[in-house]
Amino acid sequence: MKWEKREIPAEQVKALDAKYQCGPITASILVRRGLTGGEDIQYFLEDDPRYLRNPFELSGMEDAVSRILDAKEEGERVLVFGDKDVDGITSTVLVFECLSALGLDVRWQIYQGKPGEPFGLSRRVVEEFAADSGTLIITVDCGIYNLAEVGRANELGVDVIVTDHHNPPLPEDLPAAYAIINPKLPGSRYPFHELCGCGVAFKLVCALRFALRSSFYGQDVSLLNVRAANDAWIIEIAKLRNLALIDKLTETVVPGMVRIGDTRLPAFLEGQQILAWDAPLQTKILGRIFGKAVEIAMLDIAPEIGKEIPRSRGQSLLRLREESRLARYSQGDISELDVFLNLFISFVRKREKLWTAEDVEGLQLACLGTMADIVPLRDENRIIVRGGIESIRAKPRPGIAELLFRLGLAGTRFGSKELSWQLCPVLNAADRMGKPEIAVNLMLEKDASLRDKLAEELAALNDERKKLGEETWSIAEPMAFQNLEGFEGKLALAFGEHINRGITGIIGSRLVKRFNVPALVVAFDGEIATGSFRSVKGYSLRPLLEQCGDLFLDWGGHDYAAGFSMELGRWEEFLERLRTVSAIIEFAQDEGECIQIDAELPRLYLTPEIMDIVERLEPYGEENQPLTFMTRNALISDIGMMGKNGAPHVRLTLDIGNYKWPAVYWQAAEKVPGEFNVNEKVDLAFTMSRNWFNGEGKPQLIITDLKRSAPPTAP
User: Fold this and answer.
1) Average pLDDT over residues 698-706
2) Secondary structure of residue 29 in the 3-state scheme
3) Beta strands 594-596 and 599-600: pairing type?
4) What share of the chain is helix, strand, coil (3-state, %, to 5)?
5) Coil vs helix vs strand at 444
């Protein structure tokens, strides 16, 4: 296996360490991973929920909130309709609980599409809900493809709010919903596009709570500041709505040279509540610029902010800028207006208590949806997952608590790995086995004894899912191998009546790992074929699906995971099209398996404190793989075998510097003694974790690769 440690400029590491005070090893890791911009780095070094992005930056959010509040006021009947996977289940629970707490007449339903029905909202669901006097449907983790179904809802007088995160269709194919909330919409101004469905649902819930808690909901506010610039003055204004920045204006004016009516100020400030830092001073300066006859009505907000943020009391914006944490993560110079804006938002959040225990608990569901849907662990997804894990550790919500107990995780310091590999699959089993409502009921059930029974039922479904998966794999793997040749080695395909459509995605993912090419697994159910596509990194499925789109009843998904349904009578035509399309698939050049090294640790630097860095940069997952270190000349002082069926794994003790390190090397028994042995020195590439026992977590090395050290060179 090749080890690669990318060369990086030492001066860049020093500069980054000096700016963020994160330590030289962390700085080198960030640089090596291409994380050099302040906005990227802040989400690796900060946990505070105030770094979460404002939900009202999402297009359609205020329209959606207003419509839901109208439904509350008018006593309307509302349906929350969600997808059936973990992301959809957590989204459904989150929005349903929020609306129930607000007193709405709300019910929920999970997608359980019958063969031939489109993914997401169906005509049947719409018509049944309309017949039951329903007037508002909120889709979660689905809906972006339901053009016809939303059209039918409109005909029946039912409004639809779509919240989704899947790649949207062409603009002309978007549903005519009352509001669409999706960070991936064409022209979206939302800075981060990779929220999961429950992440989007969480934004909706936060926006609703803001509307009910804050006096600034629906309000237009402008922050004004004037600062000197040589012989001129710079007038800066930030326009906010729902605390989201919607526009900025900068005017440079020489006193006495222009009338205020000849500037853009009157039009920009029309209808605005104007706030200033030290309003008497700002008024005086504006009088110098435009004449004393000009008056701009403004409120001095500095004293009020000082009550909530004492460090700002009596300080100028210029002085506060020097102390600002915002400046640390800014790519360039920050202005006094930037500081003002940050202080004002922090002041409102604190005074109006906009972050409560309800929001912290909501992070638990958003965290599980984020991990289960394998979205990039970058930007605010990191705060969602870190905050969610901490909340689950502190006080797991009903449903999650029962599952943690059954999995043996209750009371342990679990992390993203344990939740992703153990908890999420159990929740997902409800979907795979066609009973997603069990997982929703588990989360919503008030009776603890009934939750225990539902958790037991869910665990049994997971065991059944594992068994079904192994039985299907024994058929799908050889079939896919045989079909590779027909697709020029570029596509692994398994299909037939023997495949359960609930596990097509799981089998597809395993085939990708097995053959390192895109995989398609299709279940035949009556007259309908339902397929799941999974891809390798670097090859987007969208172009392939678009070229077959006319054959599908419906299709959609992500770049690397997608699905479709089609009439079985078109299967042969689809296969011919697939052979043609797959022939032109091109993959990134394969340079062989390569281990990317994040940092080389000299032996004396490899201390237990390194775990602090590992845990600081958690959670790990998509686009943030576990840190991989390397060290040289480690002495193997002990070797033992572990595991069943011939003890395939190796446990080692390594003398490195001043410490003896326990290490695990999976599937490496056959390498002893041929590749390494006791009392030999080795170079190793490894990750790190804690081995928990009796409540104590001791650091250990997980070896990725190991090589005998080169003998010392002669002097």
Assistant:
1) 94
2) helix
3) unpaired
4) 45, 20, 35
5) helix
